[in-house]
């Protein structure tokens, strides 16, 4: 009887895992280190909701600034493909147009993050993560090393606008030491959180291999030995204007996994994506709970969308021989 119960329970767990299919490849997501895979698809519903709010906001910004008004069509469709086409149109003549169209959003976001930092402990062992673990069952058609190399190439920046509806700008530089730095403008939130979307212009001055056990990168941030250290990067997120405060730390890792570790009988890669934030522990009880429970979940879902879109693009680029580690010279 006990054996039958175990078998039945295992079968229920197996059938309630959400295996999403995108671009002919299957994906599976979890949001905590020891958590079970999600039981509902993550990408499509979130991406559609984010596309609608991004479209509405861009329409307001274009009306207020009269910049690229020709890009707004009569149909006004708000699907992800439509918002990606709209962003392509907006950046046709000037890739910096979003900084003017969405200038008020940047100011509002700066004020929000300044408050979070001011009302939080600086002890990074107490910081809280928005994070996701996304498995892509590429079965050898995209490896962890290939994806890591691709993220250091100009092709990753070129794919940025189509990685998420709320992506607006990304420019990356790789120096002679292999250290990566980026300037980024993107938004997250507003789908699951009442705080709304925080469209933030920030820099990652040094995105490099982590050294755990320091005040800057606590050991508790280590995702474990299964994620090879050479395929991890960590870097502070610094506001690009205003106070220029550090308001979070970006942390990315990727690994290969064997077919025996997955749910589909195929091998693949798993992308660990995290941002560690000050916990806003001095906020009101309501704001604290909204931040750690919903706002961080919002960003974690945002990460899943971009990881799936970017791994699919990396796979396409790799087929063309574009997954070679770029030269820093």
Compact summary:
This protein has eight helices and nine strands. Helix 2 (43-65) packs parallel to helix 3, helix 2 packs across helix 8 (285-319) and helix 6 (144-151) crosses helix 8. Mean pLDDT is 92; it is low at 1-15.
Count the strands?
9
**Outline:** globular
Query: How would you state the average pLDDT, rounded?
Result: 92
Radius of gyration: 20 Å
Question: What fraction, in percent, of the residue positions are helical?
Answer: 25-40%
Order of helices and strands: HEEHHHHEHHEEEEEEH
Number of helices: 8
Low-pLDDT residue intervals, each spanning 5 or more residues:
1-15
- Main β-sheet, in a few words? 9 strands, antiparallel
Structural class: alpha+beta
Instruction: Walk across the major sheet and give the strand order.
Output: 1-2-3-9-8-7-6-5-4
Distance N to C terminus: 66 Å
The portion of residues forming beta strands comes to: 15-25%
List strands and helices in order, with pairings:
Elements: H1 2-16, E1 20-22, E2 25-30, H2 43-65, H3 80-90, H4 97-101, H5 103-118, E3 128-137, H6 144-151, H7 154-158, E4 167-174, E5 180-189, E6 197-207, E7 232-239, E8 246-257, E9 268-277, H8 285-319
Antiparallel strand pairs: 1-2, 2-3, 3-9, 4-5, 5-6, 6-7, 7-8, 8-9
Please characterize this protein's 3D structure.
The chain has 329 residues and is α+β, with helices and mostly antiparallel strands. Helix content is 36%, strand content 24%. It has eight helices and nine strands. A nine-stranded antiparallel beta sheet has the order 1-2-3-9-8-7-6-5-4, sandwiched between helices. Mean pLDDT is 92; it is low at 1-15.
